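Researcher: I've been going back and forth with a colleague about how Aminotransferase class I/II-fold pyridoxal phosphate-dependent enzyme might be arranged in three dimensions. Neither of us has a model we trust, so I'd like an independent prediction. The organism is Paracholeplasma manati, in case that matters for your notes. Sequence below.
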Amino acid sequence: MISFKNDYSEIAHPSILTLMQKHSQTQFNGYGLDALSISVKQTIQSMLQANVDIHFLVGGTITNKVLISHALRPYEAVISADTGHIFVHETGAIESTGHQILLIPNANGKLTVPLIEETLKGFSDEHRVLPKLVYISNATETGTFYTKAELQALYRFCQSRDLYLFIDGARLGVALAASGLTLNDLCENSDAFYIGGTKNGAMLGEALVIKSESLKPFFRHAIKQSGGLLAKGFVAAIQFEGLFQNNLFFDLGTHANAMAAQITSGLIHLGIIPIYPVSTNQIFITLKKTQVDILSKNYAFEIWTDHGFEQTIRLVTSWFTTETMVQTLLKDIESIL
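Model: Here is an independent structure prediction for Aminotransferase class I/II-fold pyridoxal phosphate-dependent enzyme. You can compare it with whatever you and your colleague have in mind.
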């Protein structure tokens, strides 16, 4: 069975496993207050021009939940695309904190200034929640990415309306590889963002970067209250020690995108056009249900939407995907057409 189901099916990249073994006989302070965690935070800070706070958390959902609930007062709400991870795949985590998610129809998975501006018109008095934070993901849930100009426009607008802009970076590695943006570009054009390790070669972990001064105070209290403050915080730090050595974080994203591009080229050659533009490592295609059934015998993938006679499936590449896997998949797809 070859997996194209997600980008976190493997334990970790060998370089990170080597570091885990290297540090296995070292004793650390707990809760992210150890020398290694401090050193890795300094490494990330060195890539950014603004003075930031950095926190390591175990995964994307807890990162989103803690940051958003910390940023919002009880009567404030978060704006998200209707494909946003916080709405579709987080089991009401945000709603469980008492905050409403205001959904906006997406433009290829993205939010735009006009879409947000139109939504804000309906929230002008004390009888409704007050929009305060705009949530976007980069790469998006449809595999697209934001350009620097798009982020700049969003952030300028958010600042003009006294809104926070928060970037979910679960798949930031592939987004940066596709867009040519830097971590500093993200920092300059948001109030907070996180660097996704789980979906880019790490065993676990996300590195949350907070730039906004108003969001920094007492954030560790918020993490602890939500159950996200790891006693063994150094385990998460080790992940990013490895990812930011020898350009690994960026190389893994580039490789995942290259494998997706090969699949896309092969699919188009076979007459199959992905339903979203393929920019990063996610590919959505529609096949007959009988074809999907045959393909699922040898491959793992997500059935995204079921149309009865047809099904849309999602194929995801990762640092682990090889050209042999890609060519085998394309050959088997050709055989069922």
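Researcher: What would you highlight for our discussion?
Model: I'd start with this: The longest strand covers residues 130-137. After that, consider the following. The chain has a mean pLDDT of 96.
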